[in-house]
Amino acid sequence: MNKRVIIPFIAATAVFTSCDEDSFPGLMPDYTDVSDEVPVQVYVGKSSGTVDVKGSGEIENYGMFAGKSIYVFAFSAVDGVRYDAVPSQDDAVPSVLLFGRRATLDGKETLARWADEETVNYPSRQYSDYPYNFFACYIDDIPLTGIKATADKVSAKITIDGRNDIMRSNAVPPEGEYFCYNSARRYINPTFKFSHSLVKLNFKAKPGLTPGHNQEVDIHYVKVKSRSTGTFTLASRDGILDLEFDDNTATFVLTEKDGSEYVKQSIVTRDNADSDEGIIDLAGGSALLVSPEASYEISIGLSQPGLNGGAPADNVKKIKLSQGEFLSGNSYDIIFEVFGRNNVSVGAVLTPWSDPVLLDDITDDQRPEK
To answer: Where do the structural domains in the chain lie, given as residue ranges?
Structure first.
């Protein structure tokens, strides 16, 4: 069968090494005949670092995927096949193998289980080398609706709320290979390493210098204005899976890590220039997940005992980086230096934010209970 194979080129979103290193997990038996059926199995891949999952917040490790869903797409890698093709019983071989098939992880193994528990097999016999490209997305608790397919890609409209972690991946086979019946027989299965599509903002408060006296300041809330709706590319012939936001905006309010309302915190200004202690994480280290921007409008509610009946003042600040923009997949510490009810400065620092780690890479206290 003559064919031209297209392989997605974004190798950074999936990791493979040689079969000898057991990097291609598989639960299938040794097949001896091309008439044997071989099921499609997908896995989550290996990464380094940490990531959190109502919105559920951000995902720190694959153990936090337990009970969560990913959506998998698989399209023919043969040149000319359309991503909006309508499957037909007359098709000798399916050009669309998977279309938004939901799979779940239990947080203990990297094999993703199909939610409907039904098996999908690779084409076999004379089509045993028919190749497919695989894509996956994680959209937290956002319903996957309004899917639109064109000749070259599949996309969906999504709305974020500041706590949704949006991630995407395309599985890249080893050099000289592609995903098909024959490769699956050799335990070469699509393996996804997810990358973040949003910007993570962490918030800290630092005591400001008030020479000659200390004063207590209460922090009531933190809000960020962000774009909130956009088009998420779920699968694409060129392998580029992006999230393009439109002009709709929303104000996201920082919550505790469990999604509950922010609990008021207090900070005491410092009267000694030599002291730089007392920096606190706001909301216990919770974060907001927002659209990539050149700058953000951020507000913080501050009050002082005995002033204005303890009512908070809404301090609105515009924050931008000294160089460049706030980029998707990056994490930034937003640091408020608090001097009083109506006196606060704010700055931003780039901090590490890695993709989800495999269970083998996490510490015992991070592992989910069995």
So the answer is: 11-194, 199-228+248-351
Range from 2-16, 43-57, 197-211, 355-369 that averages highest in pLDDT: 197-211
How many CB atoms lie under 10 A from the CB of residue 345? 13
Rounded to the nearest 10 degrees, how much is the dihedral formed by the CA atoms of 278, 283, 284, 285?
-90
DSSP letter string over 4-19? -B-----GGG-----G
Structure tokens at 176: 């000289």
**What would the DSSP string read from start to end of 108-130?**
SSSEEEETT----B---GGGTT-
Nearest to 10 by CA among 169, 139, 233, 133: 169
Residue 85 has pLDDT above 70, yes or no: yes
State the DSSP H helix or E strand holding residue 169, giving kind and residue range, or none if neither: strand 167-171
> Tokens 């209460």 appear where?
218
Q: Tell me, which fold does domain 199-228+248-351 have in CATH?
A: Immunoglobulin-like (2.60.40)
Nearest to 324 by CA among 369, 294, 286, 357: 294
> What is the DSSP secondary-structure string of 118-180?
---B---GGGTT--EEEEEEE-TT----SEEE-SSEEEEEEE--SS---EEEEE-PPTT--BS
Decide if pLDDT at 41 tops 70: yes
Residues 221-232 have pLDDT tens digits of 999 999 999 999
State both tokens at 190: 């699509």
Q: Which two tokens stand for residue 151?
A: 């000749």
Q: Is 158 exposed, middle or buried (0-12, 13-18, 19+ CB in 10 A)?
A: buried
The answer to whether 350 touches 45, Cβ cutoff 8 Å, is no
Q: Is-above-0.85 flag for pTM?
A: no
Using the Cα atoms of residue 319, residue 322, residue 323 and residue 329 in order, give the sign of their dihedral. negative
Residues 219, 282: Cα–Cα separation, whole Å:
9
Q: Say if residues 357 and 109 touch (Cβ distance below 8 Å).
A: no
Asked if 221 and 254 touch (Cβ cutoff 8 Å), the reply is yes
pLDDT tens track for 103-153 = 988 777 788 899 998 999 999 989 999 999 999 999 988 887 789 999 999
Whole-number pLDDT of residue 71: 94
- pLDDT, mean over the chain: 82
